[in-house]
Amino acid sequence: PTSFLKHAVDFDGDGRADIWNSTPDVLASIANYLVHYGWVKGRGWGFEVTVPESVSCSLEGPDQGKKISQWADMGIKRVGGKPFPASELKAEGFLLMPAGRSGPAFVATPNFYVLKQYNTSDLYALFIGHGADRIAHGDANFAGSWGAVGGLHRSDIAALQRSLEAKGYDVGSADGLPGFKTRRSIGTWQAKNGRAATCFPDADLVAALK
Predict the structure, then answer these.
(1) Cβ distance 23 to 9 under 8 Å?
(2) What's the CA gap between 197 and 117, in Å, rounded?
(3) For 136, which of 100, 127, 130, 171 is 20 to 30 Å away at the CA?
(4) Who's near 175: CB < 8 A, 6+ residues apart?
């Protein structure tokens, strides 16, 4: 109710904001919501990229942004060979690897995190952004494939998070959900312990951290 009162818009001019039956009101209200939370006009949500092994997956997160030109200088490239738009090179971007090294990777813009104001799930915001790209530009499926990332119970991941917390790592919350703080903490621990940094929980990692 609070969001409705703040952001609902009567765009069809019938005298009331109707987000249940009026498509114009729905779309205008969503746009108003996004603008309120900082959506930058003219920027998209992000780009699918390839991340070389020389770039640690522990660099992920909205608090570790760099100019997109800096990510490019580190060897991160857009999939398909397209360059980053010249207008984006001086703007800030953020490494996003929702499945660690076991899935597609992205350089996200601040607009991605505006989408997360509605739903905090990385995957929700990712698929909303990608769906919009496909509608607007006919973009294809993600080039990167999703690996076997669903083999653990939520309780297993929570136990892993508690183990990392006990070692001084910031996992965000021991809630059984592998958010970016958990993913990059995993990568940092793996690198410090002579393991390849995957930045995603698996059964071997759960056992190693018990």
Answers:
(1) no
(2) 29
(3) 100
(4) 158, 161
What mean pLDDT comes out for the span 16-43? 94
Distance between CA 16 and CA 12 in Å, rounded?
A: 9
CA gap 75, 52 in Å, rounded? 6
Q: What is the mean pLDDT of residues 179-207?
A: 96
pLDDT in tens, 17-27: 999 999 999 99
Query: In the chain, what are the domain boundaries?
Result: 2-36, 46-137, 154-208
pLDDT digits (tens, 9 = 90+) for 1-16: 788 989 999 999 999 9
Residue with tokens 């020389």: 54
DSSP, res 77: E
What is the full DSSP assignment across 154-189?
Answer: HHHHHHHHHHHHHTT---S--SS---HHHHHHHHHH
State which amino acid sits at residue 109.
T
d(CA 108, CA 116): 12
Beta-carbon count within 10 A of 157 CB = 21
8 A C-beta contact, residue 12 and residue 22: yes
